[in-house]
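Journal club prep — side note

Before the paper discussion, L.F. wants everyone to see what a predicted structure for a comparable chain looks like in token form. Sequence:
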Amino acid sequence: MSGSELPVLAEVRNGVGHLILNRPAGLNALTLEMVRLLADQLHAWAADPAIRVVVLRAAGDKAFCAGGDIRALYDSHLSGGELQRYFFEEEYALDLYIHRYPKPLLALMDGFVLGGGMGLVQGAALRVITERARLGMPEVGIGYFPDVGGSYFLSRLPGELGIYLGVSGRHIGAADALYCGLADHCLPRERLVDLDAGLDRISWSSAPLDDLQRLLASLGQAELPEAELATLRPLIDEHFALPDVPAIRAALRGESRPQWQAWATETAALLDTRSPLAMAVTLELLRRGRGLSLEDCFALELHLDLQWFERGDFIEGVRALIVDKDKRPRWNPPNLEELAPQRVQAFFAGFQASRA
């Protein structure tokens, strides 16, 4: 492939390493090749004293990254391959490395930022969105659970916001992303050229993160008006703190306060489209994640991964929504009433957190 055809591009200008996801036709969904290219370049730049900061962004105007290439994982599993094991192990290692990256890393998000895309950005020192950004961990919709560190960053959002976003799989916009702490700054899309110009001419000090923050403060905003989650927060905290998913759904169905009924009914209907098993495992995962280190959160997610392709709903979800596109997944079990709590707990059996 020529340089412009590579799925990850890299260039350096004025001490800034620019990493660009370059599969716009596939909404920049991550492949194992992309994970390896990203990891290799980040490690090289970490050791290069000429690189002061790194900017991670994407080609195209629809998505920063819409997740992992789940069709490839589906095909590999059905053919007896092990791509899914290598992919998750290396993807999680990359995401963890970003959380621990020794130089300031700015993640620049425009369009959809879903699943694996969230894993790339949530460990960044600065998370910058445009007004067009749509963030989410929608895994329960394909019979999966929030991974890529989701058990760490979702579980640490204020109140029950992370539980709500993980169990429902709902996407949020820029104002809500800033409100709940999944982004730090919002730049109007037309000002991205000004950001690049600023990066190209900045005189780096001995504190490049401070330099970046000053540049962003001159261009964007740290909060936006009309965050829907701010209005819904009391209701979310009330309902999504309940003991289990059946209790959450029943409370939503039973909501009688006129100002909340429409949202509660809509949310309950959304839960009814999700995998019952995936929602229940997600709730348990996020609540456990609150007490785990970042490393242990990734380890627990991998512990679940190694069982999920055989015992979870992922294969059926991908079949229904991506392969056959009949949008009629046959979840196992088909409803929450038939889901035994012991089946949920069995996925977590044998996992031991580190003693660090």
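L.F.'s comment for the group: The radius of gyration is 20 Å. Keep this in mind when we get to the figures.
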